[in-house]
Amino acid sequence: MVRRVRRGRRDDVRRRRAAWAGPPPLLLLVTVLGVLVAPAVADDRPTDPPADPSAVHVDPPTSAAATPRSIEPRLVRRVETSSRGGRAATGADVAPLQPAVDIGVASMNMLRLLTPEQARADARRLTADPAVDVVGWQEAQHFRSVLRSLPGWRTATFERRGDISELAVSWRADRFRLVRSKLVYGIPGVRPDEGRYPFAGRRIAIVTLEHRESGRRLTVLDAHLPTMIEDEGVPGRWAATLNASRARQHLARIARAWSRVGSRWVVGTGDLNFDARADARQRSPGGPIRMLGRVAISSYQALGARTPPTYPELQRRIDYVWVDRAARREGRMEFLRHWVLPDFNSDHRPIVVRLRLT
Question: Which residue stretches belong to region Disordered (predicted)?
């Protein structure tokens, strides 16, 4: 019986071999091994050295048929999906970066007691300086015609219900154009029956300019604090006057107006009647550094206060140029240098600050 089973199995094997019409099994096994081993052997060849990461190379496309996607520089649109669904643009077209723009900003108290001829000589001398592009003026209420007639310049002056503001802002017409301007409330004045040192109410001038070549928009805040606000015996501390109390209020309102501007590039100009060196030593509460420092930084803080005084009579540095603190921190604004120009008819000397906008 066992022999019959074995004989039957051998007959089955013979029949299966006779039915196979393909290549011999040994040849099939060799072929499969060749397919599996050949790629591994081929990948074992030497490779080219890695490319220099600092070098950028783009092969030119050969033809439309041979290159399914064009390899050309192009603008890229970044789009994300908002949390509510749909498209939410997160950036504009990525164009080549624009070059930095260098500008000069000056602050100048004209002294309201000057004659029109003296004021004209001062204004034309300052604006003829090629390093100056924008000027914030104080005590300019009598010299609007002088400022409006500056060759190659435009000026924003302000009048409210017959009250002519002492503040004005001028700019080079070939470099900037006016976007908008306004005068906002600052502080009430002090009447003769209220305090020893009366003064008229103060405002804040806000002027937005557009740089013609780059399209960057620069907002200028110009202001003038009242006199008799700093302790003469201890510079950098507040005097015990109603003027000082109003000045602290004015600084707070300047800081608030600054924070509401919303521009990427903001500068401040002004006669603050508070010495920059003394303020840096004392840092009195409510002073320029403590109050405006929340939103801005002055050229004295960034570059040092080793310039000549802007008010030579008392050797004080009370005229300022500020830039937006966030813009400077993020690299959009940079102080380059500053200096004080001598020999003007006014009792003040203008401070000039060169800035870089990126």
Answer: 44-70
Looking at residue 149, the DSSP 8-state letter turns out to be T
The tokens describing 200, both together, are 């008229």
Torsion over CA of 113, 118, 122 and 125, rounded to 10 degrees? Answer: 180
Q: Which amino acid, one-letter code, is at 216?
A: R
Tokens of 96: 């080549």
Closest by Cα among 179, 108, 178, 103 to 143:
108
Instruction: Please give the Cα distance from 250 to 272 (Å, whole number).
Output: 10
Look at residue 16 and give its three-state secondary structure.
helix
Both structure tokens of 90: 């997160």
Q: Look at residues 236, 149, 235, 244 and name the one whose alpha carbon lies nearest to residue 196.
A: 244
- Evaluate if residue 224 carries a pLDDT over 50: yes
Identify whether the C-beta of residue 106 lies closer than 8 Å to the C-beta of residue 352.
yes
Higher per-residue pLDDT: 38 or 219:
219
Residue 152 corresponds to which tokens in the numbers above?
Answer: 């190659």
The H or E element spanning position 136 is strand 134-138
Tell me the two tokens of residue 211: 């740089």
CA 33 to chain centre: 67
Q: How many CA atoms lie within 13 A of 350 on its CB side?
A: 26
DSSP states of 297-357 as a string? EEHHHHH-S-SPPSBGGGTB--EEEEEEHHHHHTTSEEEEEEEE----SSSS--EEEEEEE
Of all residues in the chain, what percent carry a pLDDT higher than 70?
Answer: 73
Q: Give dist(CA 115, CA 121) in Å, integer.
A: 10
Confidence band (pLDDT; 50, 70, 90) for 98? confident
The span from the CA of 86 to the CA of 138, in Å, is: 51
Residues near 217 by beta carbon (within 8 Å), at least 6 away in sequence: 179, 208, 209, 210, 211, 263, 264, 265
Distance separating alpha carbons of residues 226 and 202, to the nearest angstrom: 8
Write down the architecture of domain 104-357 according to CATH: 4-Layer Sandwich (3.60)
pLDDT of residue 161: 73
pLDDT digits (tens, 9 = 90+) for 33-61: 454 444 443 444 334 333 333 333 333 33
DSSP bridge pairs for 109: 138
